[in-house]
Amino acid sequence: MSLLVVDRLTKSYREGKTAVNGLSFHLNKGECLGLVGESGCGKSTLARCLLRIETIDSGTIALNGQPIEHLNERKLRPYRKQMQIVFQNPSAALNPKLRIKDSLIDPYEQFNHQLRLKHFTFTSKAAYIKQLLEAVELPASLADRYPHELSGGQRQRATIARAISIEPEMIVLDEPTASLDVISQGAVLNLLTSLRTHLNLSYLFISHDLAAVHQMSQCILVMKEGKLVDQFNRDHIFKEDRHPYTKELISIF
Q1: Domain of residue 20, residue span
Q2: Which of 5, 34, 76, 193 would suit a FRET pair with 48, their CA atoms being 20 to 30 Å apart?
Q3: Last residue of a domain, one of 139, 167, 195
Q4: How many CA atoms lie within 13 A of 128 on its CB side?
């Protein structure tokens, strides 16, 4: 069953550049959909459009069958808690003036304590934060630290904990391992896979790294210069009918 359906989405900027040009695809519930392409091809712009951080020029975005592309902020609010994002740079994503525990509790408080969660309990704020840290394999002792006191991998795990804190249906992962060393990259990818299964999450996994996308995703989209040039099941990556650009990416896989 489709969670997200995107139809002919287009986004241009004032200088005339079309960053996203007529994209159509769908994300099934419980699935990881990979999106791969070189830097500047429009991947991050697409992510911002899907989350309604940016407006679109044309096309539709439907979440659970509800078109959301033209909803105002008040009407969009119930859908905000269904969608979260993990950015490439965890240092920029975490407020340097807040302790980790305060960053983790913020999404819950933003929704006025009106969330009904299945996996995280609320016997106390401390217990909730402890569960979130345990879910991303971080010790509870990190709750009182500031972001600069954590390693890069720990900071990214903290941003993942914040993303899952309100149990969204979908998380956009925008180059989530690009700023990490190789060992941390593998550990974070394994963690994300485990969380998707345990929390029944759906991912849009955006990366320039085809190997990471192939590891994580059931289906893969290939984007070039604002357009989708290829889409296929991960098992079909080496088929002869792949687009020439896909084959170019495979050659450095």
Answers
A1: 1-82+171-253
A2: 193
A3: 167
A4: 23
Closest by CA position to 48, among listed 105, 88, 108, 107:
88
In this structure, are 162 and 178 located in the same domain? Answer: no
Structural domain total, the chain: 2
* Concatenated DSSP letters of 33-55: EEEE--TTSSHHHHHHHHTTSS-
Please give the radius of gyration of the chain, using alpha carbons only, rounded to the nearest integer: 18
The whole-model pTM stands at 0.93
3-state secondary structure 165-215: CCCCCEEEEECCCCCCCHHHHHHHHHHHHHHHHHHCCEEEEEECCHHHHHH
112 pLDDT above the threshold of 70:
no
Q: Which two tokens stand for residue 72?
A: 């105002």
| Cβ burial, residue 173 (10 Å; 0-12/13-18/19+) | buried
Residues 217 and 120 reside in one and the same domain: no
Percent of the chain with pLDDT over 70: 98
